[in-house]
């Protein structure tokens, strides 16, 4: 039975006894808000004691999801790495407190506490990516395994999406990167550093992601038609990307190299990212990610093709995302088109 009190400062306080433990929350502006909080807590406590929910720690749900669901995904490497970190299997931090909570006791407040802990340590974007994984695990527990009655994260406030990055290459930065990588488009890029340079040029010319560039095989390339076919992409849909004359030239030089007979660039995406950051730091360039080259490319392409063809090139099925995140035409240039 919940107890509701009005405090001296005019706010309301609610008190609930759950499994012999007294829980109190202060600062409600109305009695109705206090009663709603108490009712939710009592309902969650009642549901959590249901006999059909197994008395297992949440860590077992993480492990089962890792071993049966994550391994089937294209992005399994990064998802498994996140789950391993929560389980305390990484060297830099212990297991997350969520791991030790029984599924019978798991409530929305536990995920609210997790959210607040993570926001103190990492950026909002990181929390949102982790949120997606955790919510998927909870949904799997509820819908497929019978380990939860519902996904408790649906009642937790999701952090606000951060502003989309708008970083483009500044004057002189491209030239710095080419000097640092020693890449010359007229010479086959034999070293890894030179291939990083080739990947930079290719990204700017095609708006392809790092993983897509590293995954190109010669079977996917048609130099006569100037296209690259991507059978697997981030959103799961295949697409064909048109190639500029510069992009074709990059591929033609790569094709002459013996160690690029299978994969065009013979680079791994994580290696590309790490080495790009090293080269960027060597050039004393601040806050530039390899993925920012996609923004750079799409902004340039927007001056050459309409937005529908731009979406075909980028692979966006939702034009709102393309407009909000990548499509950033110069309004001064558009003003000139009006005359």
From TrEMBL:
**Region annotation Disordered: where it falls in the sequence:** 16-56
Gene Ontology process terms (BP): DNA integration; DNA recombination
Domain called Tyr recombinase: residue spans: 164-339
The record's annotation in PROSITE patterns points to: TYR_RECOMBINASE
UniProt keyword list: DNA integration, DNA recombination, DNA-binding
Q: Which GO terms describe its molecular function?
A: DNA binding
Task: Give the Basic residues compositional bias ranges.
Answer: 19-29
Q: What residue spans carry the Basic and acidic residues bias annotation?
A: 30-56
In Swiss-Prot or TrEMBL terms, this protein is called: Site-specific recombinase XerD
Question: What organism is recorded for this protein?
Answer: Marinomonas alcarazii
Traced from the root, the source organism's taxonomic lineage reads:
Bacteria, Pseudomonadati, Pseudomonadota, Gammaproteobacteria, Oceanospirillales
């Amino acid at each position: 039975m919940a107890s509701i009190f009005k405090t001296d400062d005019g706010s309301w306080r609610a008190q609930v006894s759950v499994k012999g433990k007294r829980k109190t929350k202060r600062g409600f502006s109305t009695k109705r808000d206090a009663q709603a909080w108490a009712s939710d807590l009592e309902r969650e406590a009642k549901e959590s004691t249901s006999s059909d929910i197994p008395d297992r720690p949440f860590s077992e749900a993480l492990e089962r999801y890792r071993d049966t669901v994550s391994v089937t995904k294209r992005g399994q490497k990064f998802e498994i790495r996140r789950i391993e970190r929560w389980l305390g299997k990484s060297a830099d931090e212990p297991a997350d407190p969520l791991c030790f909570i029984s599924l019978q006791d798991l409530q929305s407040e536990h995920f609210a506490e997790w959210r607040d802990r993570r926001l103190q340590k990492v950026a909002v974007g990181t929390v949102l990516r982790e949120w997606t994984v955790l919510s998927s695990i909870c949904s799997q527990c509820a819908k497929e395994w019978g380990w939860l009655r519902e996904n408790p994260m649906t009642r937790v406030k999701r952090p606000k999406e951060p502003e989309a990055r708008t970083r483009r290459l500044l004057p002189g930065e491209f030239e710095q990167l080419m000097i640092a990588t020693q890449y010359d488009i007229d010479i086959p890029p034999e070293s890894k550093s030179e291939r990083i340079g080739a990947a930079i040029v290719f990204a700017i010319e095609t708006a392809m992601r790092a993983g897509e560039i590293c995954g190109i095989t010669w079977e996917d390339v048609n130099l006569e038609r100037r296209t690259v076919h991507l059978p697997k992409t981030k959103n799961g849909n295949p697409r064909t990307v048109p190639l500029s004359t510069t992009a074709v030239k990059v591929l033609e030089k790569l094709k002459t190299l013996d160690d690029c007979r299978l994969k065009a660039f013979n680079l791994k995406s994580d290696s590309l990212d790490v080495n790009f950051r090293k080269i960027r730091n060597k050039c004393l360039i601040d806050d530039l990610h390899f993925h920012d080259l996609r923004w750079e490319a799409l902004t340039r392409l927007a001056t050459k093709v309409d937005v529908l063809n731009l979406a075909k090139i980028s692979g966006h099925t939702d034009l709102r995302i393309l407009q909000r995140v990548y499509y950033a035409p110069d309004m001064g240039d558009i003003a000139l088109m009006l005359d």
